[in-house]
Amino acid sequence: MVKKASKGLLILMALFFLAAVSVRSSAQTVKGQIQRMSGWESCTICAGINASGPAATIATFSGNGSPSLSGDSRVFYLASSASYADALWWKQLGAANWATNLRYDLDFYLQTPQDAQALEFDNNQANGQMRWIFGTECNIAAGRWDVWGNASGNWMPTGIPCAMPTPFKWHHLTWEFKRNGGWVTYVAVTLDGVKHYLNWSFPARRSGSNELNVAFQMDNRANHVPFKTWLDNVTLTYW
What is the CATH number of the domain that holds 80? Predict the structure, then answer.
């Protein structure tokens, strides 16, 4: 009798666990293949220090079958006669004020990574009162990951390595973020299967906007040699 009761209890516990997993899974929203979407926005001068340039020539378009993993990658191009020019692209995905967890997942590819000062991978979220800037950059020149200090408005070195990417190779990147009230938390970064937990938090800033977007930025070096970056399988999961 005791054995039968124990067996029944185990079955109930298993069913409860499966139901909980199902609820968590169904509560997630997944925006996939974002690189294929139309309506990407961009700027050059606004991407520079203090949003003051320098100017650059930029371009982006999807439909690239090669190089590609999904059969449809998006290429980004940056050129400038000035040193340390930047270009920022972003894709609005609509507001999601209820979401407090975000996972930004993508593959990227470069042919001449030696011409890149840094590559920036960001999420931005706002709910009409606060704005959470989940800003990250692979600081190739310094060989490390930096994260954006949000309200303080500066980059914070993490000490997590981000070496110059291998050319002509796809690299897989995942950033995990969390917001808690007026705070931004950088949970963890995984690059090519190597995961580092950070769990750093910074105060967010006030904002009257409502948005959720993914963003990508390219920074060139002092030699201002033009270069390209391809993104594929760009996905944002939030819950």
Answer: 2.60.120.200
Question: Does any domain span residue 157?
Answer: yes
- Token pair belonging to 139: 């600081």
**Which residues partner with 121 through β-bridges?**
136, 216
> H or E element: which one contains 63?
strand 57-64
Domain that holds residue 132: 30-238
pTM over 0.85: yes
Buried b / exposed e across 54-84, counting CB within 10 Å, b at 16+?
A: bebebebebebeebbeeeebbbbbbbbeeeb
The dihedral through the CA atoms of 219, 47, 237, 72 has a sign that is negative
**Residue 80: its H or E element:** none
The domain total for the chain is: 1
Nearest-angstrom CA–CA distance, 89 and 44:
9
On whether residue 84 sits in a domain, the answer given is: yes
pLDDT tens digit sequence for 120-176: 999 999 999 999 999 999 999 999 999 999 888 899 999 999 999 999 999 999 999
Is residue 96 in a domain? yes
